[in-house]
Amino acid sequence: MEKSQIWLALGTLTLLFVSASADDVVVLTEDSFEKEVGQDKGSLVEFYAPWCGHCKKLAPEYEVLGASFKKAKSVLIGKVDCDEHKSICSKYGVQGYPTIQWFPKGSLEPKKYEGPRTAESLVEFVNSEGGTNVKIATVPSSVVVLTSDNFDEVVLDETKDVLVEFYAPWCGHCKSLAPTYEKVATAFNLEEEVVIANLDADKHKDLAEKYGVSGFPTLKFFPKSNKAGEDYDGGRDLDDFVSFINEKSGTSRDGKGQLTSKAGIIESLDALVKEFVAASNDEKKAVYSKIEQEVEKLKGSTARHGKIYLKVAKSCMEKGAEYTTKETGRLQRMLEKSISAAKADEFTLKKNILSAFA
Predict the structure, then answer these.
(1) Which domains does the chain carry?
(2) How far is it, in rounded angstroms, from Cα 59 to Cα 76?
């Protein structure tokens, strides 16, 4: 098995695991709070604000906490966005962020958590209050960890676009960036030609010096075409990173890692597809041949998308005008079910390309 295939397989497993851990923290709202909290489970609730730096630092620790108690039937790990649900936060006396409170089973009288904001300490607290004996979960990261041993192999690979964060373990800004950077890595986990990586520059000073790193975090982008690297000077929100990578790598992902409506669309085939749609049944074969010739010129992921164009065009000829409508409906129903991220990509690509033939 090639390295790229191994990385993809591991990445897919990591994506599923990390996504699951984030989902293990229950999002509580004004409508759901008292339906979930104070019922038949003890509940630990984080009251946070999206803009709060301390909340961002806590986020990965809290997700590990959620993953740890995933199978504990007697405990709920939840969170409330106080910007969105001010009335709940006011009701429970929240004056600063994050505020973490324990609600015993059957009670809406909370006890404030005053301990360290680490996964280990939070797990210990919940075990003590909830009478559980849960061990802390290990959540794999989607970020590729670089060292002096693998830096050149990963970063200088001319088949990959690589974003690298040079960080120091003691750096506050690096800690604040960590949960966002993890989400970026997760969003692009299924992209074979994109790598999101980091390097402990405190530990690997020689590499930091080689690439002109003088402050932390420093972000550099190493595209396929420029392995000397270029500075990343954009914003540090999830959407900023996602937009940057989509633009530089030709990908079409959103912040959740889902393909956008532009994914798979090949603009150079637009005119031929329009000609194909307008052609009579007898004329379609000739236009199909033209599309086939253009697809043969494509490379990489675009070539794979081109093959989907050909399959759709062939099905249109064989199954008639109603094919695109029926197939689009079928794919939409599949996308609404619980399916793997890889399957969601497959169905979304085809659905997008079908829209060009509508």
Answers:
(1) 3-130 (3.40.30.10), 144-249 (3.40.30.10), 267-356 (1.20.1150.12)
(2) 16
Task: Provide φ and ψ at 77, rounded to 5°.
Answer: -110, 115
Query: Nearest-CA neighbor of 208 among 185, 229, 226?
Result: 229
Rounded (to 5) percent helix, strand, coil in the chain: 50, 15, 35
Q: How far apart are CA 110 and CA 46, in angstroms?
A: 12
Query: For residue 81, what is the enclosing H or E element?
Result: strand 75-81
- Give tens-digit pLDDT for 211-246: 999 999 999 999 999 999 999 999 999 999 999 999
For residue range 76-93, what is the model confidence (pLDDT) as tens digits?
999 999 999 999 999 999
Distance (Å, rounded) from C-alpha 115 to C-alpha 88?
23
In angstroms, the CA 188 to CA 221 distance is 15
Instruction: Give, in order, the Cα–Cα distances in Å from 70 to each of 4, 117, 137, 326.
Output: 32, 19, 9, 39
Whether 81 and 99 have beta carbons less than 8 Å apart is answered as no
Compute the residue count for the chain. 358
Catalytic residues: 52, 55, 171, 174
| Angle in degrees, CA 246, 248, 251, rounded to 5 | 35
- CA atoms of 171 and 3, how far apart (whole Å): 32
Helix (H, G, I), strand (E, B) or coil at 106: coil
Interval 338-342 mean pLDDT: 88
Rounded Cα distance, 134 and 341, in Å: 29
237: helix, coil or strand? coil
How far, in Å, are 243, 271, 302, 347 from residue 312 at the CA level?
Answer: 29, 16, 15, 13
- Residue 223 has, within 13 A of its CA and on its CB side, a CA count of 12
Is 27 in a helix, a strand, or coil? strand
Alpha-carbon distance of 286 to 78, in angstroms, equals: 59
Structure tokens at 12: 């897919």
Helices (H), 250-295: 270-278, 281-295
DSSP state of 253: B
The angle subtended at Cα 190 by Cα 295 and Cα 4, nearest 5°, is 80
